[in-house]
Design goal:
Number of helices: 2
Largest sheet: none
Order of helices and strands: HH
Shape: elongated
Number of strands: 0
Strand content: under 5%
Structural class: mainly alpha
Length: about 100
């Protein structure tokens, strides 16, 4: 069965977002400011269109843009082992005597 030549059109709009990872919060903030102030919605629409195949039938318009820097801080901690007591020499967690070789009978 062949599909008809009628094409399906998207009703409404498409919203998308993306993440750019930066090495520091300062760099991320600087980039967000640069995107917000130096790229207009019309220019961004042109950038999108420039990456689409020639002869496409899509109408591209950018209604709004927002760039925000979000800093994520990851803190890792290590829990030290339980204390064996201050000044205790030869402290061990062994529960009893252990044979390390054959036991004579």
């Amino acid at each position: 069965r062949r599909l008809g030549s009628s094409s399906r059109r998207l009703q409404g709009s498409v919203s998308f977002s993306y993440r750019i990872s930066m090495p520091s919060a300062e760099t991320a903030s600087s980039l967000a400011d640069q995107i917000s102030t130096s790229v207009s919605a019309e220019d961004f629409a042109g950038l999108i269109e420039s990456h689409l195949p020639e002869g496409h039938s899509m109408d591209i318009s950018v209604l709004s843009m927002q760039a925000a820097a979000v800093a994520v801080t990851v803190t890792t901690t290590a829990t030290p082992p339980p204390s064996m007591g201050v000044g205790v020499v030869g402290a061990s967690f062994a529960q009893g005597l252990t044979a390390l070789g054959p036991i004579p009978m």
